[in-house]
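Example 3.2
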Amino acid sequence: MSKQTDDFFKNIVSHAKEYGFVFQSSEIYDGLSAVYDYGQLGSELKNNLKTYWWKSMVQLNENIVGIDAAIFMHPTTWKASGHVDGFNDPMIDNKDSKKRYRADQLIEDKIDRYEKDGKSDKAAQLQQDLDNALNADDLARLKTIIEDHNIVCPISGTKNWTDVRQFNLMFDTQMGAMADGAEKVYLRPETAQGIFVNFLNVQKTGRMKIPFGIAQIGKAFRNEVIARQFIMRMREFEQMELQFFVRPGTEMEWYNKWKETRLKWHLALGSNPEKYRYHDHAKLAHYANAAVDIEYDFPFGFKEVEGIHSRTDFDLKQHQEYSKKKMQYFDPEINQNYIPYVVETSIGLDRLFLTVFANSLVHEDLSTEEKQDSRVVLKFHPAIAPVKAAVLPLTKKDGLPEKAREIMAKLKLDYNIQYDEKDAIGKRYRRQDAIGTPYCITVDHQSLEDNMVTIRHRDSMEQERVAIDQLSSIIGERVSWTNLLTQLI
């Protein structure tokens, strides 16, 4: 990571804290590693991103419905899914720092450094070596790669490594009042299995016909060893997943369709297309016959934001075997019973949050010949902005606050609005720029006479004079979900 990109990433982290987007969890107790809390503005942005995803999946598609499955599931669920036996990461410890790392991520960081240093051939060869080792589950080879490329511990700076071994990522706990009779259960490491075990319930009660999808947003938990890259990798995180059930033999057609659909969804937020790329998996999961990641170019390199996987019939077939319940669908069009194939789209909400934040945070130089000036602005798409508009009386007297409060009382019924009367109007504009508010409404002395106010536009900083009774329709048109969703149809 260059100094410039490193500084930008530090700016993202500090800006997120300073303006109430993201805090370190339990910070007054020195924090909890790889766990974060969303503040007053962060929770608003996060909820808006969930709403955008839910509307695009469930509201726009008549053959997709949503559920909300429990976090706790019968422990046999995770035996059937393969998580009990196979949900592992290759871990390595540094004997000097006593820190534990994912071996593959240490190597990936080295690949990124090679690319940034202009050593693309070396990066490509290292990537190939890593892929071969992962495909062969060759843990000894992973350690050899780390040693051959002089990869050191970021903390101690030494190469005093242990052997690489597998580490299960599931959290477990006890369910039951009595310790002797308690049952071992797991915090779910993914939300997908809650969809699979409810496949028949949803299909029958919703009278769903193949192809159809089940969507879900929910928390998942993984005992990630490394706390790194802010909210990129956390122990408690949120997923937005779609499991789309299709007729066997049609899965690749749907896989390619969802691959294109999902990238289009990201770009509709106003992101730079050059910041995104597809990355096909070199090593497929045991349940997949095709897999691709949508990656975003973060300050620390291209990383996965969303995965699209063709999961075949593995999950439903496994649950049929372990539960002894038939997970079949009768297809009247071909007069056959079969276990459907599944195409999955899975996006990490926290990673999406970081993507949107990184894409929106801009430092603008507004200097002129007369004076030096600049601003920091979050250029969120208006539909997902945490605060839609701020109402600002020009002064704290002469009836202006009362008029501003009157305007706010009407607007807050439909939109999240802030009121601010402290400091000069220029400072207040800058504060709203820094939290991504699309519109500022200034109430001045003339407003008391003509019932008109000034709207300032965040991105252009242009101002226009409008009637107070038109404010709701003007703001509503500009922050409407329709502006986003129409780009997806």
